[in-house]
Here is the input.
Amino acid sequence: MRNRIVFIAAGLGLALALVSAFIFSREPKSQPPVFNPTANPYAKGIYSEGMIESDQAQGENINIYPEVTGPITQVLAAEGAHVHKGDPLLTIDDSVERATTEQLQAQAEAALAMLHELKAEPRPETLAVVLAQVDNARATLKNARDQLAKEQHSYQMDPKAVSKNDLDNAINAERIAATNLEVVQKQYQLTRAGAWIYDIENQERTYASLEKSYLSAAALLAKYTIRAPSDGVVLAVQATTGSYVSTQGAYDSYTQGFDPLVVMGKPQGSLEVRAYIDEILVHELPDASKMRAEMFIRGTSDQVPLTFVRVQPYISPKIELSDEREELVDVRVLPVIFRFRNPEALHLYPGQLVDVYVKSE
Here is the structure.
């Protein structure tokens, strides 16, 4: 009985193994592709990867880095917003620099006021005081001379009527009064002449120095407000209120690297695509007048005709698409820029990767 059960179990196991082998040996039916893969539209065409970017007269998108450091206090522009040249995009904490600028402005204004004061001399009130001192000195001299004349007349009439000491004192008093009149007259002339030209020139240079210091501080203060360098569209704002930024840009905690604080582009009615042609295929490129290309949107069957714009005549390592700073394979490419109208039916954005075919010779 026991052997019979063993034989039955072995038979069932063998049957199960055969059924499993049959089932798993069948090839599964392949699923249809989500979209048809791109095919070279030209009999002889060069394939390349491309990146969509804003329609720029030169260069790529505008990457804005701050020239100062500090925490962001306010973000004024939203991503996708159309801005004009000079519009504020965001502000960085400028409390210290603003106080320094106001201090230098006050010093420059004080130096200018002192310069005006020197140029306005003599002050009428000061001149009136010195003139009164001259009149007082004249009166004192006249009184001293009158007193001396009386003493001398008495001495001539009767030498014993006036002592020699009183006569000498009267003579000395007259000389002192005459000297004092001469001093206050010269003081009057000095006051009337106004400020010395060298004092004015020195004050002019002091004011100019302080004014330049103030203008320099004001220019630095203006850099704490990041403004749009040209008309365009805000493509990306890489920082938020409270985050710290430096001249390297804004720190990205995901990539653990630094990104531009703001990325701007031109209005997206027309866009450009930068196709990276492998250096071994550069010799197959046709003349600019004969250049034809098609762009295929990844994930779709859509294709867009391209218009040749220019060649960036510099072959560089292919790191733009992967953002890798160290490459295991030295792949070098030539950037060729094409332009196209942004189709309304498609959603295309700067930074999007596409496939580009260029008709070769």
